[in-house]
Every structure is written in structure tokens, then in C-alpha cells.
Amino acid sequence: MNVGQLLKSVSKPGRYTGGEWGQTVKNKADVRCRVAFCFPDTYEIGMSNLGIRLLYGALNREPDVWCERCFAPWTDMEAQMRRHSIPLWALESGDPISQFDIVAFTLGYELAYSNVLYMLDLAKIPLTSAARGEDAPIVIGGGCCTYNPEPIADFFDLFSIGEGEEALVELSRLYIEMKERGTYTREAFLHAAARLDGFYVPSFYTVSYNEDGTIRGVAKKYEDIPDRITKRIVQDLDTAYFPKETFMPYIDTVQDRIMLEVYRGCPRGCRFCQAGMVYRPIREKSPEVLAAQAKCLYEATGYEEISLSSLSISDYTRLPALTEELLAWTDDARVSLALPSLRADTFTKELMERISSVRTSTLTFAPEAGTQRLRDVINKNVTEEEILNACRVAFEAGKNQVKLYFMIGHPTEVNEDLDGIFALSEHVIHEFYVNKRHDKQIGKPNKGGVQVTLSVAAFVPKPHTAFQWEKQDALSTTLEKQRYLREIITDRKVRYNYHDAQVGRIECVFARGDRRLCAALLEAHRRGVHFDAWEEFFSYETWLEVFDAVGVDPDFYTTRGFGLDEILPWDIIDCGVDKEFLRRERAKAYETKTTRNCMEACAGCGADKLGGEQTWCNRVLCKHKKEG
Amino acid sequence: MDDIHPQSKTLTVRLGFYKVGDMQFISHLDLQRFMKRAFVRSGLPIWFSEGFNPHPKMVFSTPLSIGIQSECEFADTKMTAPVTPAQVVDALNPCMPDTLQLFYAAPPVHKMTDIGYASYDIRITHPQSSPEMASAMDALFSSPLILTKKSKAGDRDTDITPLIRSASTVYDPADNTMTLHCVLCADNANFLNPEYLMRGAARDLGLTFDDPASAWYECIRRDLFLCDGTTPFL
């Protein structure tokens, strides 16, 4: 029985064939380090990930390194693999990943942790670092979840902290060098890797705990490894590696288009937002470089859409120049531009006109909180007036659907803030009808009515944010707030969606957890937990049983809140932003004071110590020096 | 070589291609998306539809289920400038995998609706293969065979044998396999998916399966014919 025969008996066989246009196949005789790049979710989701495309290309640029892809097989394929004893394989070669030198997981959300164990198990690789012998692959993790790697520390030999394009190439070079010199042993390699910038070997650090369960301290195994691991960044994005071609899925995936990363970081400093902190300092790319890269990728792929991706695209300082360069050829080539992360306060008529080729009738904005007071607390720095202005621009252009993202459970939230969510929706609807009259005058009436969709998530206090010490609302409180919102939303033009509060609680445990959660993950795996990020598989009850079985109290990580002087599980990771800055930001939140964004004034977050080209830090700090 | 319709504004080109190996697992819709992008990469003067969402237009011949290979697929597309068939083949083939390659490009001869029949080879690897089983299979397809056919209108019990123009099975002792060569109706109103034949065989010939989901045959479409059952479609 081989993989080819299994393909006829599973749904969506195109997930498992490999052979996509643009994939990299190498002659094994030329390869000295084989990397399996694993994504702990389905093919469709993994193939939509920009990070995989970058790292795949960066590693395969090395002539003697071969990076292949591997995704979590769906449960029908899992059943066939177990039945016929076929271990998890990589798509390009079809070889079992247990034979690879490095098995790398990208970790984007906590609920995928159970799938890491699921994939290791299917691959027949020992689940824990301690159980892996000399011949087992080195299992490494990277991605935004590794800013708190502690809940999964036992399963990884190594974490790559921060941006991986250069770090992973360095790591594979170290591996090849030690193998060739004959100095490779697992321990020696990990020790050498731990001395490179941005690598964390969890087994070299021992964590001790106080009687109340908080962390007492961390002891190092070797003197010459760092106390804290500072994340890696790419200094100059203009000259950084960028793939000139990319693999293209045959089957339909979530995002199947050119993804053009315009800049890294975000100047805004929302106090709940982890991405806004851990990707600092902001580094922009030049419009000319971006335009050339877009053209190059278009010619290599034939994609019909370019998505300008960044945390807040309208904050890109040279957006007009970039859109001009792109529009010079995209219209003729019938290529459309998508700007997925618009901010209401910078969404203008001019911008709308530039992206006239946006095909959907929906625009999405994220006020995140229902009242100005609470928006000030979370430092969202967007006003109701700005949101309504943005909606007006959209309505005037013929859109009739607006999606608004909110979060409930922010620190200091009261019922009035929940009322504000509905009130804001009503004001948006009012804005539409004012415009409808206007539309009739210009002979372009919007068909039908308006639809405001509210997507309401529950707040999770994330590591490395100003709110990292905060409590999460108790499950009963979140459910009560969700019920309250359902009751007050009486307008049928408002569609109200909310996230599963039980999922939010489990996510919070793993976002803020320490190493004692490794036992919980192992126990959950033993009970068959996988595809937790999928509604049809997530079982809250199972997780409660698991926590009970291994003696973990979920409230310790959720509703307890963390002390300001407590050693936090993720303190071992230095993302560039100072803890002292986060404390100041937290204090300002409680005083309902906002902080200006990086473009206006430097708030002194500390990330400028990491350097970087085309940063706001340089510009704003220079300006300050001149003024001061 | 002569240009295709050098005078008209848009030129219709019929592409003949095979879709084998792993490409058998790619649906028509996914194939369409892939080929559109291959056209863009090839630099051929592909015609785009007008309107809000411009896209190249492709019309495919007969349906092909996922899991069936083909040596004989056709699709029509339009060009905005004169190109020779050789130019189309030379430009497009390097933009597609080995398992999806053009063998033909020319102005259409027949209408898509002229297609009447398709021929298939089905190689059966079931361990119960034998000369007797091959004869039993031929007998099965020459007497009425009632199967539940799924359609948009609902499930219906139908005798599929009127849709079978010919079917003959050869046993190969060298590797203990049987190959069924069949010619089946493939016009719009009466399309017979070859998998129905295998479903009938699995049900009525006493074949046993360890794992009901496992693959026990491979199917490949060989030719498309007009309504006379012998003239190749071009």
C-alpha cells in the first residue's frame, strides 16, 4: 500500500499529492540538510501562510538545503495512514519526515498545539525532546506563539525567536558544518545553536516554582547561553530575501494570491495587541522595491490579485507612491489590489478610488470597543467620527455592508461600553440612509438595505502587551456579556456574531501558560485531542477533564491575573519592548490616557535597540534630538 | 503553419491535453483556475472577458470525475491576436506540469455538443481477478444492470446497459489483472460515468474487500467520439 492508492479513498486528495507549480525539488545527492516545514493545520490553511512561503524560499536558496512542506492530514487520511502504517510524509519527496534532519513547526495560534503532537505522532517521532535519540530529527518551533514558548517547551528541541529568514539559514549551516566536521551530537548542536542569536533551547533552562504556583526562578545549564533570548529581526527589508517565485496550490485555499508584505511592525500601540508589540521596530520597504517584487511574482505565477499585507496598511507612509507604481501596470494586466487591514481614521476617498478594483461589497473596520472612554483605555485612538467618515466613503462608493470587529472583556469594561457597541452600529446604519438620498441624486442608488455585521471576540490578555498582567473575564461573565449584547441588539440590520467563550478560555490558558501545561497537552493527545481549532473537534469538557487529570487549574492563568512583580513565564523572551514600558502603558490605561503612535512621537518602548532600516524610530528620534 | 482565423477579432482555439498522474485528483474548477494562470505566465494573447471581474474564458468538453485520468481532454479558449497552433503548444506546455500537457491546438472542427461517446480503459487490480471473472464481467454488462444513479433531480434506479456501447474484459495472467475496455455514452443528456460499471461489478460479481475504501482499479479515458461512436472528436 502506498500513498497514491490512499488518495482515492480520502476527501480532497489534492491536499496530499504535492507537485504544485513552483515547488522545489532537489537531487538528494546534492543535499546535506533536509528540512520538513510543518504547519499544524490543514493544507488549505497552511498554504495561505506568507511565512511558509518566505522561509521555504530562503532555505531552498541554499544549494545543499532542501526544505519541503508538510501539513496536518485530515481525519479520513489519518485513519488510512494508521490502518496501513504509513508515516507522515513531506509533499515534495514523499519521504517520511522522521528521516529528515530538521522538522520545523510554525506556530500561529495556541489551539494548534494539539496538532503538533498529532503530527509528531503520525510521523513516528518521539513527542518529547527528552525522548528523542541521536538519530531523531531536531524539532524546532517558530512563529508568533513562540513569544511564550513555555506551554510547549517539552516538545521542542529548539525555538527560533523572531524573524526566521536569516536565522533558519544560519541554523542549517551550523548543522551541516557540525555534521561534516564530525562534531555533531544532539547536545553539542543544541549548545552551539543556543549561542546563536535568537535561539532558545528550553531543555537548557530549569524553571522552579514558589508554593503558590508562581515562578521562583530559572536556572541555566550552561554559563555561555543567554539569560534571556532576544528576538531576531531582519535589519533591512529592502535587501532581505524575497521569493521570486512561489508554490501555487491546485486546489482552492483560503488565500491564493500574491501577498506583498509592505512593512513589518505597527506604529499604533493598541494595548491589547500582541502583534503590535512583538513585531517592532517598524521597518518599511521602499515602493520601488515592492513594485518590482510584485511584478516579478506576477510574471512567475499569473495570479490575478495582489494583497498588500501589513498590520495596518493605511499607515504605510508611501502608500500613494506604491499604489501609483502598481496601478501603472495592474489595470492592464487585469490584476486587482486588495488592502485588507484598513484603519478607519486613515481611510479616505482618495484611497478608496485607488483600490476601485476591490470587488467585495464589504469593508471591515475594527473599533474594538464601543465607547470613546474604553477605546482610550485600550489606546485604539480612533474616534466615532472617524469610523462614520470611513463608512460614508464606503457607502458613497456603492458598498452596503460593513463589518465591525469588537472585543469584550477589556480591562475596566462596564455595561455602558457594551451599549456603545450597538449604538455605534445604529449610527453607521443612520449614515447609510443619509447617503442613500445622496445616491439617488447621483443616480446610483444602493440596492437593498444596509447590513452591519458585528464580530465580537473575547479579550485574551496576551504576553508582551500592556495588558499581560490583566485578568480574563470568568467564563460566566463572558457568557453573560454575550447574552446581554444579544438582548440589546434589536435591529435586524445588525448581524451579531460572537466567538465561543469556551474556546477563548482554553486559548487564554495556553497563551499565558507555563511549562506545567506540557503535561496537559500530552494528556490531551493521549485522549485523542486534535484539530482543536475546528469547531467540530473542539471539546471544552475534554479539556476540563485533562486539566483535572494533570492537576492544572485553568483559573491560575485566566481569572487570577498576574502580579506586576511576578516572574512571567514568557520573561525568558525579549521581544525588544521593555517590561517597564508595558507597565507605564498599563498605568496609563487605568488613567484613561492615550499614547501617541510612533509616527507622531516616540513612546520609548525600547524596540529601537534592535536597529532596523527605514524605521519610524530613526525618524522620530532624530526629530526629537533636533527639537530637544 | 497557418494562423488560426487571422481575420476575426477574437480567435477560438481548441486545446487538446492529457490529465494524468496526480492531476487526476484536481477538479475541473481547480484545473480551470490553474490553466488561466498558466496562460498569463505563457504570455499568449489570451482574451479576457469584459466587465467588473475580467477573466479568461475556458469551455471544457466532457466532465471527468476526480480520480480518473485522461489522455483526451479538450477546452476552448479565445485569443486576441493571431497565433499558430505550434506557438500555443510551445508557449503553454513549459508553464504546466508533466502530468498536464497539450498534445494539440487548432481551430475547433466539431461543436462540443457533437460529442457522443468516450472510451475508457479500466485496469482492475483486485486479487480475485481471473479469466472466469473477466467473462463474468462481460456478461454483467451485456444484460440489464440496475443501479441507483444520482442526479440533481434525485436518486433514480436506472438500467445503465443502454448507455454502454461496448465493453470487453481481458485477463492478464502476467500480473493477475483484468482490463476492461469500454465505450460509454458521453453526450450531455446521457453521460455515463465509468465508475458506475465498477460499482455494479463490486456489487454483483462476488468480489470481497478487506477495506471498502481501498482503491482496486485505475481508470483512464482514451478517446472522445462523435455520435457515430467511431469518428474522433476534434
Describe the structure in brief:
The complex is a heterodimer of chains A (628) and B (234). Chain A has 628 residues and is an alpha/beta fold. Chain A contains 20 helices and 19 strands.
Percent of residues in helices of chain A comes to 25-40%
Q: Give the biggest sheet of chain A.
A: 6 strands, mixed
Note the quaternary state here. Answer: heterodimer
Q: What count of structural domains of chain B?
A: 2
Q: Please identify the structural class of chain B as seen in this structure.
A: alpha+beta
Provide the spatial order of strands within the biggest beta sheet of chain A. 2-1-3-4-5-6
CATH class of the largest domain in chain B: Alpha Beta
Radius of gyration of chain B: 20 Å
Largest interchain contact: A-B, 28 and 31 residues
Helix-strand string of chain B: EHEEHEEHEEEEHE
Keywords:
heterodimer; A: 628 residues; alpha/beta; Rossmann fold; Transcription Regulator spoIIAA; six-stranded mixed β-sheet; four-stranded parallel β-sheet; 19 strands; 35% helix; globular; B: 234 residues; alpha+beta; Alpha-Beta Plaits; 2 domains; eight-stranded mixed β-sheet; two-stranded antiparallel sheet; 4 helices
